[in-house]
Amino acid sequence: MVAPEPHLRAKAYLNRFSLLTHNTPDAARNLIPQLAAMLDALPPGRSQVYAYLNAGQSLLQLGTPAEMETAARFFAQAHGKEPIAPRSTG
Fold first, then answer.
1. Between the CA of residue 40 and those of 5, 25, 51, 64, 78, what are the distances in Å?
2. Residues 8, 14: Cα–Cα separation, whole Å
3. What DSSP character marks residue 79?
4. What is the pLDDT of residues 23-58, one digit of tens each?
5. Cβ distance 71 to 34 under 8 Å?
6. What is the CA radius of gyration of the chain?
7. Counting beta carbons within 10 angstroms of the beta carbon of residue 11, is it exposed (0 to 12), middle (13 to 18) or buried (19 or more)?
8. C-beta of residue 51 within 8 angstroms of C-beta of residue 7
9. pTM across the whole model
10. pLDDT confidence of residue 80
11. How far apart are CA 30 and CA 27, in angstroms?
12. For the chain, where are the alpha helices, taking DSSP H only?
């Protein structure tokens, strides 16, 4: 059996992640480290950009500050920029 191309594997993983964010958010949160690693490993290009955007949108559904920060990082990476460091609250 031939392994699917990385972008197809990522698309399937992102679809699963999106469903989990709506139905079982705790399960989705457990997948975030693997999701980040998978996105970082994709070859640069349009598929990687869309994957970062898709993942960021799904993360926003979770609504916690940590997921919003990760979503911001994904959006920044989709645009080819480093994310801005969070402001200190002190």
1. 15, 22, 10, 22, 11
2. 10
3. T
4. 999 999 999 999 999 999 999 889 999 999 999 999
5. no
6. 13
7. middle
8. yes
9. 0.82
10. 85
11. 5
12. 6-23, 25-41, 46-62, 65-78
